[in-house]
Amino acid sequence: MRASGIILHITSLPSPHGVGTLGREAREFADFLRRAGQKYWQILPLGPTGYGDSPYQTDSAFAGNPYLIDLEQLITDGLLTREEVDAVSFGDDPAQTDYGALYAGRFDLLRRACERGWDKERENVDAFYRENESWLRSYALYTAAKRHFGMRPWIEWEDEDLRLRRSEEVLRRYEELLAEDIRFCIFTQYLFFRQWNALRAYIREQGIRTTVMYDMAHVLGLIGDHFQKPFEEGAEIVTGSTHKTFFGPQRGVIGVNWKQEDLKWGLWETIETRAFPGSVSNHHLGTLLGQLMAAYEMNAFKDEYQKAVVENAKSFAASLKAEGLDVAGDPAAGYTETHQVIVRVGYSHGPEVAKRLEENNIVCNYQATPEEEGFTASGALRMGVNEMTRFGFGKEEFAKLAHLIADCVLRNADVKEEAARLREGYTEMHYCFSDAETDAMLNTFAAATGI
Questions:
Q1: Per the confidence metrics, is the pTM higher than 0.70?
Q2: For residue 441, which of 237, 290, 274 has the smallest C-alpha distance?
Q3: What residues form DSSP beta bridges with 326?
Q4: CA distances for 328 relative to 50, 59, 162, 379, 434, angstroms
């Protein structure tokens, strides 16, 4: 059966309180979809966002974003008053989200709601905590400790015993010390999931099928313990590109988290018939064997590769910042959670600076920031560390590269020969099989398949 739907993230819904929420406007949009004959509503990840407020960069695989809690519902629940909510400014332009104003105003309101609701909702909150303790205890302690240590990244917290979670005694000591902030985190998660579950129930009543799809185009190769596990986090469909962080030739990947007996298995069968060999004309069969071997290598080396990529990206970002460049991102999170580092170079100057770097043997992309209207106004550079990580670069090498980039960008220096010399020393690919290992695996595969 053919069906259609719409992608619209919760934050894009209209709201008098700065950003779309899980409240009345979300239900009205579901009503609109039903009247329009739509069967699917696709949204983006719902986790708590950090600097830049991207739903693709969150600090928890399980928690919900407090920004999405509907304040009108909290007034109805008796946890806030109309006067308290109306007294807060959420920005001057209703067509734009002012995340600075949102951060400044919303959390004070949620703390008031917690003060009034903790005892009133205690039985329900306790039941929620017991059901989610496997992740909520650690997350609540982490958020409280991060606030306690000045919002700095955990690797800079003074107490090494807490950083390394050396004992249950240490955790309990901080849980006692930070009890108020921990309680606040637990209560906001309770509010989020109460509203989220109510919205999901309402949508089911409208006959709208919710399907969570995650496009991992650039970060497919980082699926794992060091970044995200989308299927474990609730995604049902994952799409991605190879040849970026994932090894191998240029191909696309689609995966689902369904079994043949599941209700949505028919959607997977539809995807299969459309994607290959149906409407896609250039499926390049000759690259499939290369992609198979790349997948073997990814499975064999993913843990050490992913760890190195994320650590190198954070170190590279810190080095660029130390050299005087304007690095985008949350310093408390090491500026990045992936392989990419963003450097601002001034409104519309991205193409010019990227060209200058390329002329000096340093290739990167220019990038528009969220404040800029499009690529014609690009004011930033986007740099990924994954390729040179595979060629053996570590923190020291990326620090040298950061120095060359700063010389070129800030001082207009000619660094082409120095960049070439730096690159010449790293020509051997890492995180891959030797020729002998590859031959052995191909022979095993051939024997198993009879080819």
A1: no
A2: 290
A3: 344
A4: 12, 17, 28, 11, 38
DSSP reduced 3-state for 78: coil
Show pLDDT as tens, one digit a residue, over the chain (451 residues). 567 888 899 999 999 898 999 999 999 999 998 888 888 888 888 889 877 788 877 778 789 999 999 999 999 999 999 999 999 888 888 778 888 888 888 999 999 999 999 999 999 999 999 999 988 998 999 999 999 999 887 778 899 888 877 888 999 999 999 999 999 999 999 999 999 999 988 988 887 667 788 888 888 898 888 888 888 888 889 988 888 899 888 888 888 988 888 878 888 888 887 776 554 555 677 788 788 888 889 999 999 999 999 999 999 999 999 999 999 988 888 999 899 999 999 988 999 999 999 999 999 999 888 777 666 678 999 999 999 999 999 999 999 999 999 999 999 999 999 999 999 999 999 999 988 988 888 888 888 888 7
**CA–CA separation, 25 and 17 (whole Å):** 12
Whose tokens are 């800030």? That residue is 410
How many angstroms separate the CA atoms of 260 and 409, rounded? 54
How far apart are alpha carbons 244 and 247 in whole angstroms?
A: 7
387-411: b (≥16 Cβ within 10 Å) or e: ebbbeebeeebbbebbbbbbbbbee
Task: List phi, psi (to 5°) of 252.
Answer: -115, 155
Phi-psi category of residue 348: left, alpha or beta, with phi > 0 → left and psi -120 to 50 → alpha: left
What order of strands is seen across the sheet that includes strand 5-7? 5-7, 40-42, 209-210
Record the tokens describing residue 1, joined without a space. 């059966």
Backbone phi and psi for residue 226, each to the nearest 5 degrees, phi listed first = -95, -5
Sequence-distant contacts of 368-373: CB under 8 A, at least 24 apart: 369/328, 369/342, 369/344, 370/52, 372/347, 372/348
